[in-house]
Model the fold of this input.
Amino acid sequence: MRRRTFFKLGLAGTALSFMKPAKAGELIANGFSGKVDGPIVISTWKHGMAANENAWKVLKDGGKAIDAVEKGVRTTEDDLSNRSVGIGGRPDRDGHVTLDACIMDEKSRCGAVAYLEHIKHPISVARAVMDYTPHVMLVGEGAKQFALDYGFPKVKAPLKEVKKDWKEWKKENKEAFEKPEINHENHDTIGMLALDSDGNLSGACTTSGWGYKLPGRVGDSPIIGAGLFVDNEVGAACATGLGEAVIRIAGSHTVVELMRQGRTPEQACKEAVDRIIAKHDDMTGLQVGFLALDRNGNYGGYSTYYGFNYALTTENGAQLVDAKFDRNW
Done:
């Protein structure tokens, strides 16, 4: 199913299935933001529900936010049916599944990997870069060799069924091998933000990137300040959607800085979306969503187009929330 059709037909019904009817109707109509006392984890898209469940296992027992976000997004990386995260993801134009991820804690320590192949959990490799090296980002063969040196097993990719789909795409898109053009199919991420019982924030982001992208393309997801940013004095933010647009405004950093200036998480996300819209003459199909959480437990999201939702888990339970948006498809 093409991504735009998915947005139109699938997301509203999915969100409703996780909420009481009255509340669901309110969220569909008006979007939602709120405040939580105590631990909280939020993450992008429907696949965030399962990811949050595992992150919450860490938070509910008084665990650290950094451990929660790593464990949480690993859940999505483990899902081999996911075509936008992990080794189940779609390959680039030449058939290589390349993975990007980053992670950041309350002390502004951060780690990232980009263009990583044949490693199942790029988020944990990013965590190892953060914990064991003086660097922030490793890429390509260097990132893979680092992962192997630190005991991460090598896995085969792409999956058989993914390779079959890629071969069919290649036959139907021969011009893509002659011109530097790629399609806009599924290139969603999982971005996750958490606040633990000690009042500390952390975040994680992981993706297989834009399906059938040009070889060498890296989006916003592994870039600190674009796909993810955490400042424990203020809040945290992450992004999903077209990474190139997010990079152009240093999206997640922008959201956090707007919160520093006094905006609520939702207001900050909206203003970042407004900046993206102002910088593009053609917004056709350009979906970007931001998600934010401040140090006091206030949270919210906003997107360019209808269809962005996020998973919310607190001591009161879990639900899938539709974010406010600028326009319909």
User: Anything to note?
Assistant: Residues 3-16 form the longest helix (14 residues). The chain is about 35% helix and 25% strand.
